[in-house]
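Example 5.3 — Altronate hydrolase
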Amino acid sequence: MSSEVLAQPDALQVHASDSVAVALRALPAGERVRVGSAEVVLTHDIAQGHKLALRDHAPAEPVIKYGLQIGRATQAIAAGEHVHVHNLATALDGECVYARRPDVRAIRKPASTTGPIWQGYRRTDGRAATRNEIWVLPTVGCVGLTAEHVARAAQERHAALIASGRIDGIVAFAHPHGCSQLGDDLAGTRALLAGLAANPNAAGVLLLGLGCESNQLADLMSSIPQASRAKVRTLSSQGAGDELAEAASLVDDMVVEAAQARREDLPLSALVAGLKCGGSDGFSGLTANPLLGRFSDRLAAAGGIPVLTEIPEIFGAEDALLGRAADEPTFEAAASLINRFKRYYLDQGLPVSENPSPGNIAGGITTLEEKSAGAVQKAGSATLTSVLAYGEQALEPGLALLEAPGNDAVSSTALAAAGATLILFTTGRGTPLGFPAPTIKVASNRRLAEAKPHWMDFDASCALEEGPAAADDLFLDAVLAIASGRKTASERSGQRAIAIWKKGVTL
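Solution (predicted structure tokens):
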């Protein structure tokens, strides 16, 4: 599957074998449209981002986009007809038995550790940070508002240091969990918070507990990787006298220490970039996601770490990813993770194809296979070198596959907990929300970028208008500038939050 696409005046055929094309503008019924060597007369109005048939399809015949099957026709479809939910359906079922078929085109090892330079912070464990912040993480929802109060007051006390750039901010990330949880559900909350505490962007971390919660401070502290524990302070609110005063003192000490850090020249290989798509439309797989894929290839080739997640949004396109596994154990781990997620759906009595969302459908995406085929392009063609459990750290150069669902907040938080110091977030619909790591919002279409400049950081429609190479250069410049300290839209607006994957019962 190629991520290189060529703009056409009216519609785009992504791959030479595709049986459908994507309307680049709203097209009226009766219009004659030329796409490559094909010419069709539209039998229906086609909205921007939606699909039109390039040839006739018989009932049950596969419909092809990105060079992949995205479902089967549910009725006869004539050339020039609108192809969408009324005549196209998923062909996905349940768990699969996967056979490893290595993709020899995948990058097999870092090609170079030289390349673009950015300005970041080198931590004592050798990892690099794009921000120099203090994070307040509550162990339990009962002290979530207290954590926010502590961070807000400290932000005001240290406003001068923040304004001078000596530190980048003091932020609390509240959540409703940490008590009345059992077994794997509690373990997941603990692993997620431990991973966040280890993120290099947090120069110092205050773990603020209540005291009687299931997620005890000592257990959480022991879950944090050894190399990251020195920067962490703990406080039990029930065990303190004036918890606000004691928390303030701990934060102030960490601020003084963090203010000694300085940005320095760092290579591209020092970046860990989370890959995320939210609110996709018909252009996401044509502009924004391939843009991230080409960046991911460049990052992996330099020895950096792109991290792909949203496992349910791989269903239907997993063979393209599994073929790039570095070895048999990595292949088996990835295949097992994908099937576990399918079983997670089936055990709840839900089909594995319970996607796309209403917003996706309105934007032109019809089936999960179509959404997945566009979504996996974020990972480019880099070798899959590691498979990570929820809350586990990404440390090995090359593409990592992380266990997390598709939900924007849950998966983006998981990326930060895996060590992502940037999150590259594509969208065709838009969202104001950002996450612990700087979240670079990439618009798939010009209309969104122009309508929501206070949400979006980059307009990927330039990949169609100016060509992929020009778009890649502009995007690399934007990523490096943000890694070096330029604020994202969500940082400027204070839109940063976390969400924890709640899988079990609540007592």
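Remark. The first helix runs from residue 144 to 157.
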